[in-house]
Amino acid sequence: MKIKLYTLALFAWIGLSSCEKLVTNIDPPKTEKKLVLFTFLSPEEKIRVDLSWSRPVFGSGSSSDIVYEPGAEVVLSSSEGLVDTLVFDEIKQYYYSSKGSLIKPGVTYTVSAKKGAVQVKGSTTIPVNPIPLSLVDYQRVYDPNSGTRIRIKSEWKDPGNEVYYYRTYNEFTFISDFSGDTTAYELCGKYLQNTGKEGETLVNTCESYDNSWQGSTKTWIGAYLLTCDKAYYEYHRRRENYYGDDPFSEPFPQYSNVEGGLGVVASFRKSFKLVSLQ
Amino acid sequence: MYRKISYFLWLLLLTLHANAQQKPKFTISGYVTEKGSGELLPGASIAIPALKTGTVTNNYGFFSLTVPSDSIELLVSYVGYAPRAFRFLLTTDKTLDVELEDNKQLQEVVISAQKSYQKISEQTRMSTIEIPVHQIKEIPALLGEKDVLKVIQLLPGVQKGGEGNSGLYVRGGGPDQNLIILDDATVYNAFHLFGFFSLFNGDALKSVELTKGGFPARYGGRLSSVLEMQMKDGDKEEIHGEAGIGILSSRLVLEGPIIKKKSSFLVSGRRTYFDILTRPLMPAEGTVGYYFYDLNAKANYELDEKNRFFLSGYLGRDRFYLKSKDGAGNSNNAGISWGNATGTLRWNHLFNPRLFANTSLVFSNYDFGISAESEIDNSKFLLSYSSGIRDISIKYDLDYRPNPRHTIRSGVHLINHVFTPSAIVLKDDFSGLDQQKKNQISSFENAVYVEDDLKLGTRWKMNGGLRLSHFKAQTKNYFRAEPRLSVLYQLKSDLAAKGSFATMNQYIHMISNTGIGLPTDLWVPSSDVLKPQNSWQIAGGLAKDLVEKELLISVEGYYKESKNVIAYKEGASFVELEFDGSGNLQDNYNWEENITSGRGWSYGAEFLIQKKSGKFSGWIGYTLSWTQLQFDELNFGRKFYAKYDRRHDISLVGIWKIQEMKKEQNGVTLSGTWVYGTGNAITLPISDYNAPTHNPGRNAAEQFYNYNLVSQYTDRGAFRMAAYHRMDIGLQVTKQFEKYQRTFEFSVYNLYNRMNPFFYYIAYSNSFSGNSTRVLKQVSLFPLIPSVSYHIKF
User: Fold this and answer.
1) Which of A15, A23, A64 sits opposite B709 (nearest CB)?
2) Each residue's pLDDT tens digit, A222-235
3) Per the CB < 8 Å rule, is B688 touching A62?
4) Out of A216, B187, B222, B401, which could bridge A174 as a Cys pair, Cβ 3.0 to 4.6 Å?
């Protein structure tokens, strides 16, 4: 139940007496389609670069289909030169490195993509060390209206000598008693930075519905702490709070550090703790 | 810096005051009233030409002038009234109550060469515009609803938000940065029908004055402007009334004596009847309706020569409702209601002919409520949400006029604000829920001030003052010193150069992300986290009077910087009632998390030619301005143009009395307005693309990404809507009968049917091939709208 519903009804009522027309006396803002490049680099994960095209709003239709670009030259380089030329996986629809994990801590990498005359690129410096989780704990809370919820607490020590950006990510992991397969799905997480709490022990809690019984007696919370660069933090913070073009809210521009195009080239380090659920 | 300015001002005041005390003098004091009704006239001019000195009446019609013993010729004048001259030998203090006769009553009398005109080139204050109430009534309006705020929007330096919107954007400030005062009471939401009409219809008003800069120290609490309105006191001689029937509403004003010459009353009411007219068209099982009403009342009592009492109040409300009931007895009722209530008790006390005091006890309340109630199979559900602000304040103001060179004002203002960001009641028989939550914040806003209107030699005038303000917020106390200075240098008898400097602080804030005066706009206090808004403004200009033509010309330039102005964070939306995952109502709406603070810069130039009376009156206004904002959390920290940044704003207002009303002749008045404004600066999406979120969990081996479609926008405020322009005309035909006067008014809003944009949205346009493309569409609210109304005055 939201006030918004009533407000929308009121606006609809006002709208009955209004009139609308195509805007012809001014030109809508024009833009060309752009290459959109996304990659999140880490020594803990394989290299993946997603490359697609944006669609100008005016003069085109709308579609949620991703317009992948399979035929671009995508290059990973560092200050020491070319690291690898990435190849496109036709099935998975992204570019990857056939050389495995090449990402090293503390190194600044540039990812560039070229398709015809269009070239885009972005850079990121890999955080040096993953920061370990010192504590992960959970609590079950029962509510007669909504059932059982699970509250997860994570703690870690902030190094404190500079600005650190973090992401907590918790997932429910279980091995099926029937099939023996291991499955995981996201529970909750947050984005935060250490401003004002430099050098302190940081505590983060998040809460989710508890659907931990999934036909399994072997269940865990998989708790992750990502130490990110600013691009990773800013991009995800905005992306996760983006709920579409709500006419009653302020526009929420998305973060981009890709020159000549859109998207983000970001990096992180990851630490992990597994907690058995009782 | 502030300390040095304050010290200098005090030193100057003390020195001048000491010099002025050297000669013995006598005081002429009294009240200026309208002949016949006894209505007190604020701002009337009292002059002694031989001594090249004079003064004006204060807000309560009182004046005091202390001059050397001599043979005195004193002139009293007021716009729209016949001036009067008095000759007497001043050998002792003299009480002189002056009655001025309305020009309209002097049909056959030839008014003397002495013009009833107050020269702008002699007023120290700048950036201040007074609009005669009779002009407000003559300017054409949407559906014939005379609206003070819509007329204010026609002044240079004041922009409106959008089509039909009564909100004021003064010198780049937001609509929450205007202090709107009705008889000393702050009005928090001055709008009906989502901003299309204001609370003030002009029938019950005596004076309207807007201050955009160069604020005297007696005003404070808002950054951008002060709009001060005074209600009429009521006729002390005879019962009079006015009634009007229009397309949207009807109204009635009644005034008269309670005790002849000592006490009077005024009652004014207005109500719309859209809901009543459409009721027969509604289906039996459900109705939808909307109405608003206003009620103004005032009474005054003159106890003796030294004591007068005034009691005034306003009550207004908007209500939108939906009701339905089926044959089985199941029902649904929902509604939105909001309104203001103000009350002011004032006591004017004259300590002596030079010292006047006013004490006001003021109540002001604004509340917004939404409710949904249903009964299904005898199971009841009730949800109600409300928010609001309530003030109780005391004002004590002294007006001391020791000699013609000084008018010293000082005072104390104490306000207790009680904010209710949210109060929620939820009852549900089905689930057994029964919850009531109320979130209230009490704060104190206090101020003391002193100011002096002083004359330095024959060419210089100055209004200097200092306001010390205080706000108690949670655990924090904010103290601010606000120096004010306005200076005038008389270049010629009818030409003056003016300059001003003012700092302002604003301790309460309105959270709004629409800017269109919705009742969901929420007033919140400064807190430990949210700092008071602060601004400083300098202005300079020239003021010229063309006395014979009764014209005033003003050119002003200004520069204003603001700090801690607030805005919604990107992505933040309306106030919402949210339940947590357990189905419980959230404790309260956490407004502090949804807003962000930043800085603002406004500068520009304003040009005004105004003619307040005569056969042809009106004004031409032009504003050239820039307004930019910068917030660390908006637009990636980059500066951007405010939504209502308006490069050019033009208004032409003309009122032509084609034919004066006489016994055997109709009075005919033709009026017209034309406005032009650069389009609003808005943000539009320009492209969309699919954007993932990174999944760092167990499936990271495959780096499963969650993709969603997102928009790429123009820079904030980088797109301009189409320019706004519109012409309105009105024709009033008035006839005097034996016992009453009637007026037919015909008006046309948007004469040339300009489709001005209210808002833009992205729509789909289908081609013959079946492909759809996205296009920009605009919604316009008001095409050409003719209206007619009928008024009688008795």
Assistant:
1) A64
2) 999 999 999 999 99
3) yes
4) A216
